Amino acid sequence: MRYLPLTDTDRADMLQRIGVAAIDDLFVDIPKDVRLKDLVDLPKAAGEMSVERQMSRMAAKNVSAGSVPFFVGAGAYRHHVPATVDHLIQRSEFLTAYTPYQPEISQGTLQTLFEFQTQVAGLTGMDVANASMYDGSTATAEAVLMAHRLTRRKKAVLSGGLHPQYRAVVKNLSDMAGDELVCLAPDPAGTEALLEEIDDDTSCVVVQTPSFYGQLTDLTAIAEKAHEKKALLIAVVTEVVSLGALQPPGAMGADIVVAEGQSIGNSLNFGGPYVGLFATRQKYVRQMPGRLAGLTTDAEGRRGYVLTLSTREQHIRREKATSNICTNSGLCALAFTIHMTLLGAAGLKRLATLNHQSAVQLADALSAVPGVEVLNESFFNEFTIRTPKPAAKVIEALAAKDILGGVPVSRLEPGNADLADLIVVAATEINSDEDRAAYADALKEVLA
Amino acid sequence: MTMNREGRPTTPDEVGSTAPDTFTGNRALRIEEPVIFDVGTAEATGVDLPEPDGAVKSRLGGLERSEPLDLPGLAEPEAMRHYVRLSQKNYAIDMGLYPLGSCTMKHNPRLNEKMARLPGFADVHPLQPVSTVPGALELIAECARWLCVSTGMEAVAMSPKAGAHGELCGMMAIKAAHAAHGENRSIVLVPESAHGTNPATAALLGYKVVAIPAREDGTVDPAAVIERLSDDVAGIMLTNPNTCGLFERDIVEIAKAVHEAGAYFYCDGANLNAILGKARPGDLGVDCMHINLHKTFSTPHGGGGPGAGPVVLSERLKAFAPLPYVKMTAAGPELIETPADAEADGTKPFGRMTAFHGQMGMFVRAMTYMLSHGADGLRQASEDAVLNANYVRAGLQDVMSLPFGERPYMHEVLFDDSFLDDTGVSTLDFAKAMIDEGFHPMTMYFPLVVHGAMLIEPTESESKASLDLFVATLRDLVMRAKRGEVDRFKGAPWYAPRRRLDETAAARHPVLKWTPPEPQTADAAE
Question: What is the CATH number of the domain that holds A409?
Fold first, then answer.
């Protein structure tokens, strides 16, 4: 087996050195009647060629996003990632290192995390950010728990513009922990009366911007009302590129900002691994979940970095920890940081502009299709259309024409007749004029 | 896993260097690297994007960013150098033995990386039409099948994002099962040697954690469990093999007692790599167990993730597996994504752990690893991991101290610090001296059940020659400690990119992001 360096001679020598006769003498603590005598019922070892063939066979059955005009978003976005990013994250020293528990030989990881934290804080307009969470949805659930700890209240209010699967993740944890939750009805038009739901028992209000349906919200009034009631505003961003063009939640009064960082540096990967961003105000830092890299000095007075404030964490505090999180999304965070460094302010701004323009052009093209209505007045790179036929059928018919045209809302909000004719459509810098024209043409045919 | 709760010196000693200074501060191949905020600029960029179309009218609704974006950019060659130089300040498995006990730093095959980057896996969207992703669903189903067969379990919840997330998933399944039986139990039993994530997870769900002390030999005494069982105990969270590197030999009896009390048995699968192919958790009475794909199945740790924590489930818990899941049918794989889908399938999912379908990229890598090893290779890997750990034990037991005696261990071996008594050298000092010798230290001060713990897990990826050098090095360090060469240890590491770092100062005045030197902001002044 190519991954196992020991030879049979080694094994025999080593058993002798240990002083046992056979390998099973080292497994004596496993009760005899539950020790496996034979191999489990699975195929035997295979060489690279064979494995590659088997894996490629499965991969080839999927329609990859790059092979067709592609307009699917709803929480994960296809962007161009510079070749440099993937090269760098595959360097052995980054790829095959553990969590930086030994800082003297982990400065590479620690410094990039420090850079990551600074970039995330700047992007979101917040004071501090952690070293990443699993993804945007779990970061949202953790933010709600953090708000409960800070306010000593247990009721979260979720906007109807929140991604339905994010809502489900928060609801699951909330139900299991016995907390209270108010979920507003799905809000494609962006007209919900959120302020009325904030009261003296509210721990936090959770608002996604741009919303799941692409609506843009000025968070200022919500923040004011929340703060008046001593509740926190949690802003959720699923398309982090938008922060290159839009006012950051921190400037609109958010207390915690969580985001899905996949768009920068990371592939679609059928949903994971992604990278959750988590940022907050300085005064709340000790209630934050997750790892934090901090600046310090070494014995010679040189600048260096360590994991810090670990007294919040499970390996020290055990059942009193702020979260049970241990492993985060280190390598995805590294990809984010490298891509962000390549972009810089100028590049991110241009990327955001191109995304917005691509979406504006697509909205114009689709609204010209007879029977199609674009719901949004304003949006970033994603918007919602209403079609005269059931959205799920329309998307299937488009797929049959090799156009991946978006996400039918009914897939995530099944059983709601009001939403059955809505499609969430995303456009990014990868879409060409030809892609957009092909979509509009195909949609016209499908609806004819 | 290497932090301690007490007695750990974290302020560096004042030890100077005798080597001459350099003008740049560099030391040959070790090049000092500033943060990007010191060197990048707002106008520099390493990405060429097309010019925006001036004719397109903005529809941002008056919410355009008014604050400047404070993000420095670098041109591609500069960015490349920056991150390559930083990478060179990391230790990594690809450089040498990385014996972090309980973390399983085994070789990460590059075929896994290549497969994970096939466009059919990497460039597919989780919400594109199901009809366009049959291969992705097949991959998930096939990965699930291999995990079930090799653990002897009935089903698997694939979506948890890492080990601790898997723990949460498993404990939620237990909570849901009790609720389905009209019960609301409040206590979870957790041995003292458990990972910190176990009690943290139980507490997150509102459970009261009751600790089970370890008995003299480092394992859990069934009597201690039985004594604490009642109709208010929801379950037990037991790591097996445990964090002392020992197989819980009474596990079947413990499982039986737990089940008789109407409770469930959660097994922390962090150490599954010791027994894969040798015993199946399903045969031991386990109800649910998370599997760290980044440990047992070699997906890279990446400097702290991403991981993946699928949870295998017993017959008693499988109906409660969260959404989504993939079901194999005669017509092919079927994605069960909504409560309505589940109802039609006759299951009772407790909810959803995450948006989308889990860590697909990690499933692809784990699948590639499993196909490469096969049933025979997986078993051989476990045997070699255990053989290597015991070989290290045999090589060190006469000079270091084994709290649980000279006996067979599983995939890792636990020493305590009594061999350092009266030397003035602590576990931390000893670990830092290993860095100078070119080794990553072992896990230290964990588990908490022994004093000054040193937990060594060499994994099956090490050759005999590599282990021989490691053993010889540690023996030499022990002799030096006993000979009174205290300064060597107190000053260590001497040759790493940084000398010992001041963790106390970092925590007292946390600086968590770069701030411009002038003018000083509130953060920097704090």
Answer: 3.90.1150.10
